[in-house]
From TrEMBL:
Keyword Transferase: yes
Gene Ontology terms, MF aspect: kinase activity
Keywords noted in UniProt: Kinase, Transferase
Protein name: Aminoglycoside phosphotransferase (APT) family kinase protein
Transmembrane segments: none
The organism of origin for this protein: Isoptericola halotolerans
Length: 244
């Protein structure tokens, strides 16, 4: 997210949604899933998880309105904070808090943008990555962009987070002068909590499955929306899955 406070400033990212900042709020494209996601955000915040936006309804243009989390999200070139051990620690702990808080969320009449996966242990964010993290220069502030959330196993979220911050992603390779991806994965899983995290081998297996499914979803999204540049992303996911 940018740090400017002008009215109507565009925010970085937005491969799937149009996003704009208005004052201390963020306005995003809404969909049939928006009421469910807002109810979920309100539920999780009520459980004491503060590192996510506050849902503020829908504006007169039909866009969802969320509170703005001040800080920086990761773009390209990838900022140094992405590779700091404290980022993986904070991300693992925050994801664990989110998962634990979602366990008793009512699923009756819930509408999800993304498919659910079994076992549906928690509500997965499905897109936990540096471009959806907010960092204030010293520590991780929170996660944003929850509209991809849906029920699934804990390891499904951890696998994609590991793919993005441990060094397996082609367009986000970890620095060569730091720990190797396997060591970064161990640190992330330990930060999440060994009592609930998958094994490292299971996490790698889930990464491959996750990437193949993401590639198929991205290809279909590109076909239906005409966003053909996303096909490059899909091809990268398939290459990374093969390399894993």
């Amino acid at each position: 997210m940018g740090t400017g406070d002008e009215i109507g400033s565009d925010l970085t990212g937005g491969n799937v949604n149009e996003v704009v900042r208005v004052g201390d709020t963020v306005r995003r494209t809404a969909g049939p899933w928006t009421p469910t996601i807002h109810a979920l955000l309100a539920w999780v915040r009520a459980q004491g998880v503060q590192g996510v936006p506050t849902p503020l309804g829908v504006d007169d243009q039909g866009r969802e309105v969320l509170s703005y989390l001040a800080g920086e999200t990761a773009g390209w070139p990838v900022p140094a904070w992405v590779w700091e051990s404290g980022t993986a620690r904070d991300a693992g702990k925050l994801l664990r808090s989110w998962h634990d808080a979602t366990q008793n969320f009512c699923l009756t009449r819930a509408v999800w943008r993304m498919p659910a996966h079994e076992p549906a242990e928690v509500i997965c964010l499905n897109d936990v990555a540096p471009y959806n993290m907010v960092h204030d220069g010293e520590q991780l502030v929170g996660f944003i962009d929850m509209d991809m959330a849906s029920p699934g196993p804990r390891g499904w979220d951890l696998a994609y987070l590991a793919y993005r911050i441990c060094g397996w992603c082609e367009d986000m390779p970890a620095p060569t002068d730091g720990p190797p991806p396997e060591a970064r994965l161990t640190h992330l899983l330990d930060s999440y909590g060994a009592d609930a995290a998958p094994s490292a081998s299971d996490a790698r297996s889930a990464m491959r499955q996750r990437l193949h499914e993401l590639a198929a979803w991205t290809e279909e999204h590109a076909r239906t929306t005409g966003a053909h540049h996303l096909l490059e992303h899909a091809a990268m996911y398939r290459r990374d899955a093969a390399r894993l």
